[in-house]
Write a structure and sequence with these properties.
6-stranded antiparallel sheet; mainly beta; 5-stranded mixed sheet; 4 helices
């Protein structure tokens, strides 16, 4: 018997449609496996940090961002998206708003691996700012203790909505912009001060504003009549919204131009106002022994000096400065913190040394802001100018928003790009930059977030960038952040793999 020259296969070829089906199934299985692996890779890692309250972020963020946890609206018992939030008495207090529902206020404990809701309540649709005050908040005319949500006092005269448009005026010890609608604002004075515009003709009320100091329980502490506009040395002006010194803050006659026509000082504890002070100063910077401002030597009007006065306006000293020394332009010119992230104030001698040399030996970290910019922008950290590399490979000086977060060691800054025009919307995603080079290291958009705020040193609070968009849901299906229905996220430094 003769054998064939070549062996013949006993298998018959599969029909083409079966082959195509098999290939499709294999591809689907591989894609499913890839998605599963991606989802496992992007599962929230939980929070396991030290829960250290600080104004700084940890240098560990240089390794990147991880999502510690995510919470949905149903888990929080709210509707809508995150509107604003604040850190009050080691607790996260947040407002969620839906266009068809009343705003909801939620208190959340973040100290554990996963957050836990303490309480929540509906709010009135108000545009008035929400004051945070020690362990409480002031909202809807009530003082609410954050730890348990209990109402501890009701205000006889609640903060009106119109306070955000300039009348009445609200002062708490820090700047309050007209856009602060239903935003959290920390009270940094012993009292909150509201100045109400006179509602009767001058012949019956010879003042422009009546300023009242309010205690945390809503009771009136004191009041005094204030004058603005035309300079009248016989009457005090309205308070400046600056940190106090030994219980005092300056008053001014033109609230639209900070520091102009300052001639008296208000005692926040009892509402008394000092006699007119004869001094030539415009803007003031707090120091431990009073206030300091850029002036000249008494015997030489051309020689620059750092002039120091007491908390209530009596001159103490004049320290000579060099011609190229940093000039003070207001309370935000130099801000300093200790190692725990608490704000500290220098003595006048320490401040003079920093202005002359640019070096800081008396604080853990200091920022210097450009006083000519509004809002103020950070131009240097611990005396080091901030830069960015341009297209030609050269270093250009830049500045960052004063709200940017800085790392504990001053080596990192979390901010929108320094070259971004703050007047343009929307702002690009916040990015972590190396200091002082400005080299970008990692961006929050990698985890589906555009901006975040510091809660703990190693925990940031954020909400999804596009919670309802098709792109966000597609990214979620593929295993990336944010996941569907997420409204609140906790971000921690990326762990070593």
């Amino acid at each position: 018997m003769m054998l064939a020259d070549t062996p013949t296969s006993q298998r018959k070829p599969l029909p083409s449609f079966v082959r195509r089906l098999a290939i499709t199934l294999v591809v689907a299985l591989v894609a499913t496996a890839a998605i599963c692996v991606c989802r496992l890779t992007h599962r929230p890692v939980g929070y396991s940090g030290n829960a250290r309250i600080s104004s700084f972020i940890s240098p560990d963020f240089a390794s990147g961002f991880d999502v510690a946890w995510e919470m949905t609206a149903s888990e929080l018992g709210v509707s809508g998206q995150l509107y604003s939030h604040a850190k009050v008495d080691d607790t996260l207090v947040a407002i969620f708003k839906d266009k068809d529902q009343p705003p909801t206020l939620v208190a959340i404990d973040l100290r554990g691996t996963q957050p836990s809701v303490l309480w929540h309540r509906e709010l009135a649709k108000s545009s008035a700012p929400i004051l945070t005050w020690d362990d409480s908040i002031i909202v809807d005319g009530q003082t609410i203790r954050v730890s348990d949500g209990q109402v501890t006092a009701t205000w006889k005269f609640p903060i009106p909505d119109s306070v955000t448009s300039g009348s009445p005026l609200l002062y708490v010890g820090q700047g309050l912009g007209t856009s602060e609608k239903m935003r959290f604002v920390a009270v940094q004075w012993p009292v909150a001060v509201m100045c109400h515009l006179s509602d009767r003709p001058k012949m019956f009320q010879d003042y422009d504003y009546m300023c009242l100091g309010y205690n945390k329980d809503g009771t009136e502490a004191w009041r005094y009549a204030a004058e603005v506009g035309d300079f009248d040395p016989e009457k005090p002006g309205v308070p400046m919204n600056v940190p106090m010194v030994n219980g005092y803050v300056p008053t001014e006659h033109n609230s639209n131009v900070p520091g102009t026509d300052v001639n008296r000082f208000l005692n926040l504890l009892d509402g008394s106002v000092t006699e007119p002070v004869s001094a030539d100063f415009t803007t003031l910077t707090p120091v431990t022994d009073g206030w300091a401002f850029s002036g000249t030597m008494a015997d030489d009007s051309e020689a620059p000096a750092l002039v120091t006065i007491t908390a209530n306006g009596t001159e103490i000293s004049r320290i000579p400065l060099t011609d190229n020394a940093i000039r003070l332009r207001g309370a935000d010119t130099i801000r300093c913190w200790d190692e725990t992230g608490q704000t500290i104030t220098p003595t006048s001698e320490q401040l003079a040394t920093t202005l002359i040399s640019g070096e800081v030996t008396w604080a853990h970290l200091c920022t210097h802001a450009d006083g000519d910019a509004y809002p103020p922008r950070i131009t240097a950290i611990n005396g080091r100018r901030l830069y960015v590399t341009n297209e030609a490979g050269e270093a250009d000086r830049v500045s960052y928003p004063s709200t940017a977060a800085i790392s504990t060691d001053g080596s990192l800054i979390l901010s929108i790009p320094p070259t971004h025009d703050y007047r343009k919307e929307p702002a690009p995603p916040e990015t972590l930059y190396a200091v002082p080079s400005g080299i970008p290291l990692t961006s929050l958009d990698e985890i589906g977030v555009t901006d975040a705020s510091v809660f703990y040193e190693d925990l940031l609070i954020a909400s999804p960038a596009q919670p309802d968009s098709r792109i966000a849901r597609l990214r979620s299906f593929l295993g990336f952040y944010p996941h569907p229905d997420t409204v609140l996220m906790g971000i921690t430094p990326k762990r070593a793999s």
